[in-house]
Amino acid sequence: MASLLVRGCVFGDTGETGDLLVEGGRITARGPGLEAPIDEELVDIDAAGLTALPGAIDALAQLAAPRGPGAAADDLGSGTIAAARGGVTTVVAPVVPGLTETLDVAFHDAERRASGNVLIDYAFAVGLGRPTTETPERMQGVGFHRGFAGAFLDLDAVDQAAVAGPGAILRLAAVSDVPITVRAAGRLGAEAERVRVETLSSLGALADIAPHIAPLVSAAAVDALEDGIATGSAGLAQLCLDELPTGLEVRPALVSEDDRAAIWAALADGRLEGVVSDHHGEPMSGADAWVGIASIELFVPALLTHGVAAGRIDLPTLCAIIAERPARRLGMWPEKGALQVGADGDIVLVDPAATWTVDPAELEGRGKAPAWHGHTMTGRVVHVFSRGDQVVADGAPLFRPGRGRAV
Predict the structure, then answer these.
(1) 3-state secondary structure of 226
(2) What is the chain's Cα-based Rg?
(3) How far apart are CA 216 and CA 151, in angstroms?
């Protein structure tokens, strides 16, 4: 593996200027004036004028559904190529067992589909399927595998887990000793979201587990989170968009400016962990009543634009939101989530002052992110490195599917 020397960048976590050296896929030195190692394959990057961020961790991107009629356009292949362009170097995708599947079968099927296809590092959050007395044993069995990021429950899904109710699912996750992410989107607005957060916190206390709820979108939900057991993350679309093109729908729905301001404030002061893309691109063939939007390819640029450039957060907070906080919760820290010596060489070099307009012709994801077309961004992803391997160069992805690793 070639060594990587990034010279003259601004470190987003501290504001200092210096160099980063990556050897064997890990950061081995950080500071000014680093000497290049003797390596014939050395990749030497002049990063003057660019800011280095730790590779983003998208803790909820819907990319792992099996292909079939009506399936979303982006899968683990195209979706992770789009993710890399968005500054994401690690993605967590939910896996929901089918009607005839157990959770371990669904997990191993997702592993098989990921093999040889994924560009960046990845893990799966696994639904429990139809709960039985064997569920804890099956969950513990997959828990020993790299690529397992805990249990997953979607309150709006119509699947076998729905027949058991959230309380039973949380207790099964607690008995299995695995973390659980709950997608609690809903259709009834802020008051209903507040009730869901309060209920999940209460059920978590009874089940002896702290569920992580994503995405949260309202001020009322943040207020409820403060008094409970649960933790939460915001949704990228609800955080950054104030309207959608005709025909597009996202759940949770877009919210008021007051709610967005409250969510940004909660991210800034740490009441919310971070941001998830909740990427769910419309099928290329189109689909009636489709709910969900593509957004992972704009992950870091959108947060630079609506967060840093807008003065809602600073660069160190951005680093915490996209990397350190989710890495700690997911048990990936300090391997992931930092620009520290010993961490994986997951580095995103951005030009925080660059302005550009989102053009569908220039997007790599099959979903083409129609909700974002024509939006002006301040902040562009220039180069992306995953474990020291360059996966984006001058904004263009380097197509190397299969190099991604389960974490």
Answers:
(1) helix
(2) 20
(3) 18
